[in-house]
Amino acid sequence: MGAMRASASTAIDAPPQRVWEIVADVESWPRWQATLSDVDVEARDADGRPQLCQVVFDAKVQTISTLQRVRYEPPLRLTFEQDRGNLKALRGAWRLEDLGAGRTRATYELEVQAGGVLGMLVKGAVEERLREVLVTRLPGELKARAEAP
């Protein structure tokens, strides 16, 4: 796995502000993202939002820990990028689009360069499984959280 770049989208029956509140609540990500086991905030921005976070996730092949820098572009975009960690590089984003009538399109984008032993292990079918677990499922998990009563 030299680099994996993927994105996935879904339409959500909730207004953009509701979806944004969930996406921007970085500390709650492990409650609705099945692959995340922990988000530990190490620094906050001037608005008190998590800015630098230790994120631990299960990549099925290996547990990955990365220190990620989070940037907010309310109410429609949140980006994150690895400062340091188990991966060679990690960069991602949530993009939200107002579909009108109280609906939102959420798109999750992720670019990973595994490197090291993980990079040698992740090939072919394993890479496709990781794409499913780390990217394809996430918009559906956000949808379930946003549409919950």
Describe the protein in words.
The chain has 149 residues and is α+β, with helices and mostly antiparallel strands. It has one domain: START domain (Alpha-D-Glucose-1,6-Bisphosphate, Chain A, domain 4, 2-Layer Sandwich). A 7-stranded antiparallel β-sheet has the order 1-7-6-5-4-3-2. Strand 2 and strand 3 form a beta hairpin. Helix 1 packs across helix 5. The radius of gyration is 15 Å and the shape is globular. It starts with a strand and ends with a helix. The model has no long low-confidence stretch (mean pLDDT 89).
Number of strands: 7
For the biggest sheet, the summary is: 7 strands, antiparallel
Would you tell me which CATH topology applies?
Alpha-D-Glucose-1,6-Bisphosphate, Chain A, domain 4
Instruction: Provide the number of structural domains.
Output: 1
Radius of gyration: 15 Å
Q: What fraction of the residues are assigned to beta strands by DSSP?
A: over 45%
Number of helical runs?
5
CATH class category name: Alpha Beta
Outline, from the CA principal axes? globular
Superfamily (CATH H level) name: START domain
Strand order of the largest sheet: 1-7-6-5-4-3-2
Order of helices and strands: EHHEEEEEEHHH
Low-pLDDT stretches are: none
CATH architecture: 2-Layer Sandwich
Derived from helix and strand composition plus strand pairing, the structural class reads: alpha+beta
| Average pLDDT, all residues | 89
Cα(first) to Cα(last) distance is 40 Å
